[in-house]
Amino acid sequence: MSQPEAPQPEVREPTAGVETVEAVVRAQMSKALGGRRGMVEAAVPTIAFTVLWLTTREMRLALSVSVAAAVVLLAIRLVQRSTVQFALNALFGIGIGWLFVTISASRGGTADDQALAYFLPGIIYNAGYSVVLAVTCLVGWPLVGFMVGSVTGDPTAWHQDRQIVRLCALLTWLLAIPCVLRVIVQGPIWLAGKSATIEPDSAVAALGILKIAMGWPLQLLALFAMVWVLSRNHTPVAANG
Fold it and tell me: Does the residue 241 lie in any domain?
């Protein structure tokens, strides 16, 4: 008499040629970072502003040249018909910085106050983004999970699998670390420059250097850490339906 066959575990089918959650996240992170060219497009306007301000003390010139640099990078993208996302991000960041400079000037801020104001949006952004990433993990809906959902076709189905939720939470915490470090390091320097505890010019120079040094390099370190975590796991992607 033959024995009944043991029930076979359900096999989740890959979606759209993507076999694992790890492959999904690697692809999405690579796309989000933009490669070396994206790094250059993020750094050039900040370098232009910092160097010109420290050498000329002309706020309008420093802002104008940084905007012009971003516009040139955007124009090159348009001519080459490649993605303009990263050039637009840089241009948007400069625009927000210019807005903060204008607000500082309208409130009677000194030239030093205005130069420091240029770097304030970045610190605020990183603080806010850190909070958002942390909250999504604490409430059990880590942000990286929605990257998975964008590929599977169901934005929330991934949440039914505890293994995927744990993996996405770890990756989201790793994504938050660079933002937290930027705030911890740059925030006190900005405050010290604002209160004249250190020379405002020294604060501006430090913030300009740190904005670049703690930008893409930290993001790449976080990515490498995420890739290491991803290389150790092979979590199947659940197909929608």
Answer: no
